[in-house]
Write a structure and sequence with these properties.
The chain is an alpha/beta fold. Helices cover 33% and strands 21% of the residues. Among the domains are: 7-47 and 56-82 and 199-252 and 321-372, Rossmann fold; 98-182, no CATH class. The protein contains 12 helices and 19 strands. It has a 7-stranded mixed β-sheet with strand order 8-7-15-16-17-14-18. A 5-stranded parallel β-sheet has the order 12-2-1-13-19, with helices on one face. A 3-stranded antiparallel β-sheet has the order 5-11-6. A hairpin with a 5-residue loop joins strand 3 (46-48) and strand 4 (54-56). Helix 1 (14-26) packs across helix 12 (357-372) and helix 3 packs antiparallel against helix 4 (111-125). The longest helix is centred in the middle third of the chain and has 23 residues, at 142-164. The chain is globular, with a radius of gyration of 22 Å. It starts with 6 loop residues before the first strand and ends in a 5-residue tail after the last helix. The relative contact order is 0.21. The structure holds flavin-adenine dinucleotide (FAD). Flavin-adenine dinucleotide binds next to helix 1 and helix 12.
């Protein structure tokens, strides 16, 4: 039978789309890329809802990176809207800047106490540093210990319990360390050199990426339904690694989310794109999309985000749960994957790892260079 495609790529998210684009444009090979969902762009998918507001279906996505090669690569497919993400958290009845910084301190404590704590932080860590909650909790100075306990209780503990069903210390330390404490007045959530939102949205950027004569996109299709009928040479797999092996060693656990959208006939709903509710209500945060897109419409849509446990076939796997026993289970699948020479595994579900968008983009570019382009015919 004549071979129609050189590669089958499973998944139209960052991992699959970046590799498909590279194979098509750099190797001049033919790619069939499939997704079981009815859209491209994976979890970065955005669309205009019935009220004409551009929303992110799977939660707010803010692009930020220090990797110039990633920024330059994606900039071939989109222009950017300059955007610095700002987050407030409802603490003791006030909306306080997060990451916790000198401005937050001024809102939560008396002027005298805030100044004393600022000075102690500056003396211990220096100006404009990022300090993890775990580092701060180790403080022996009673004032810094007080501050660490305050931040731990009000910012981290209940948020983690809601988000993961676990305390911060029960998870890999990298999770809580993603939101450090800043020893400055920098209110930006991210401090990366390059930050922005694709000017026409993420889906548009992915459309441009996949718009190549060598790429054929097939949606609403589980790869299992076509893998035996459409001939190809090699596979790039970006789906869940445990499902590839029929969960032979058991299922890898995930945390899932439920989003509830509400539209209001008013210009804006809240001050910034994201307000966290660590200590109140069942939801963790409310996102207002117009802040991200800068869209000019006379109404606004927000999404309330409710964490929930993941159930196969019922909801989506969002976050791998970074715990030692899960990493060990993943390793069993990774060992099996290693043996398959005609399948390359890459992506947050295939690597069982939380990646930011720039990280998965960088990884896909690297896997393409090292493992795909280098392959002998
Ligand atoms: C709520 C939330 C918010 C986030 N916010 C940010 C942010 O602000 N900034 C940031 O940098 N990153 C953010 N991320 C991370 C970002 O979503 C990921 O980095 C990115 O989506 C990973 O891309 P991927 O291609 O690995 O996976 P995905 O985007 O999940 O793509 C995998 C694709 O494979 C498909 N697939 C799976 N199995 C099959 C199958 N059997 N057959 C066919 N198709 C299949 C899936 O349908 C999916 O479309 C966020 C993640 C979440 C969950």
């Amino acid at each position: 039978m004549n071979k129609t495609f050189d590669y089958l790529v499973v998944g139209c998210g960052y991992a699959g789309s970046v590799i498909a684009e590279r194979i098509a444009s750099q190797l001049d090979k033919r790619v069939l890329i499939v997704d079981k969902r009815n859209h491209i762009a994976g979890n970065a998918y955005d669309y205009y809802n019935e009220n004409g507001v551009l929303v992110h279906k799977y939660g707010p996505h803010i692009f930020h990176t220090n990797a110039k090669h990633v920024w330059d690569y994606l900039s071939q497919f989109t222009d950017w809207r300059p955007y610095f993400h700002r987050v407030l958290a409802m603490i003791d009845g006030q909306k306080v800047p997060i990451p916790f910084n000198f401005n937050s301190m001024e809102m939560c404590f008396s002027k005298k106490l805030a100044e004393k704590l600022d000075q102690k932080l500056l003396d211990k860590f220096g100006f404009n540093k990022k300090v993890t909650i775990f580092e701060l909790l180790k403080s022996e100075d009673p004032d810094l210990k007080f501050l660490a306990d305050y931040i731990y209780k009000n910012v981290f503990l209940n948020y983690n319990l809601k988000q993961w069903g676990l305390k911060p210390e029960e998870l890999d330390k990298s999770v809580a360390s993603r939101v450090p404490i800043y020893t400055s007045r920098d209110d930006r959530y991210f401090t990366d050199v390059y930050q922005g939102i694709p000017l026409q949205g993420y889906t548009n950027m992915f459309q441009n990426m996949l718009n190549h004569k060598n790429i054929h996109v097939l949606l609403n299709t589980d790869y299992r339904d076509i893998v035996d009928t459409i001939p190809f040479d090699k596979m790039i797999y970006t789906g869940p690694i445990d499902l590839f092996f029929d969960s032979a060693f058991g299922n890898l656990p995930y945390r899932s989310l439920r989003f509830e959208q509400h539209t209001f006939e008013q210009d804006y709903f809240q001050e910034v794109a994201q307000v966290n509710y660590p200590n109140n209500y069942e939801y963790t945060r409310i996102t207002e999309f117009k802040h991200l897109s800068g869209q000019d419409v006379p109404r606004t849509t927000v999404a309330y985000e409710y964490p929930q446990s993941y159930e196969y076939g019922i909801n989506d796997p969002y976050y791998p749960v970074p715990k030692k026993e899960n990493t060990e289970l993943f390793q069993k699948y990774a060992n099996e994957a290693e043996k398959l020479k005609s399948v390359t595994f890459v992506g947050r579900l295939a690597d069982y790892k939380y990646y930011n968008m720039d990280q998965i983009c960088a990884r896909a570019l690297m896997v393409f260079e090292k493992e795909v382009a280098n392959e002998k015919e």
